[in-house]
Amino acid sequence: MFTHLLPGEIMGESKASMQWKFYWRNVISCYRVIIKNWPEEIPFKNLSEALSRLQDLEGLLQKWKPRTIFWRSLTNDEFNDMETAHNEKFKSGKVDEPHCHCHSDHGKKRGQPATCPGQASDKISGEDAEGGQVARI
Questions:
Q1: Phi, psi values for residue 103, rounded to 5°
Q2: Strand ranges (DSSP E) for 1-137?
Q3: How far apart are CA 70 and CA 33, in angstroms?
Q4: H or E element: which one contains 124?
Q5: 2, 70, 109, 114: least CB-packed within 10 angstroms?
Q6: Per-residue pLDDT of the chain (137 residues; tens, 9 = 90+)
Q7: DSSP letters of 75-113?
Q8: pLDDT value at position 113?
Q9: What is the C-alpha separation between 124 and 73, in angstroms, rounded?
Q10: pTM of the model
Q11: Distance (Å, whole) CA 77 – CA 130
């Protein structure tokens, strides 16, 4: 089944943004979706690097609006095939996975990270054991 999805429909948040540098890891692998019908004349990379004219950006937007270009959910088999191909390219050096940089406080203990959009929080609203208010985080 080919589902034409918008970014907010995929990621569960209306302010979702494209992750060009980490497309495989943060988009395909995480959400199991791909972009279909990307124009051949536009390189598939950060649009600030790929396009310099406002006219070209507006033309690309006009293809997204009627969903000529769209997000499509992957089946498990499609994802597994893509993952195998990606791993082979990575091992052979044909694709380079960007590395995350260490934080300046590397090795020091930090507080718990906030939950991701779309995920339930462990913390709930209400009163604590001493009668104080507990806010939802």
A1: -70, 155
A2: 33-36, 70-73, 126-127, 133-134
A3: 10
A4: none
A5: 109
A6: 445 555 566 656 666 677 888 888 888 888 888 899 999 999 988 888 988 899 999 999 999 888 899 888 899 999 999 999 999 988 888 776 665 555 666 667 766 655 544 444 443 334 444 444 333 33
A7: PHHHHHHHHHHHHHHHHHTSS-PPPPPPPTTTTS--PPP
A8: 55
A9: 32
A10: 0.59
A11: 52
Q: What angle do CA 30, 44, 103 make, to 5 degrees?
A: 50
| Nearest CA among 61, 64, 97, 71 for reference residue 11 | 71
122's tokens: 């462990």
Encoded tokens for 24 = 């495989």
Q: Which amino acid is at 91?
A: K
Residues 6+ positions from 14 with CB-CB distance below 8 Å: 8
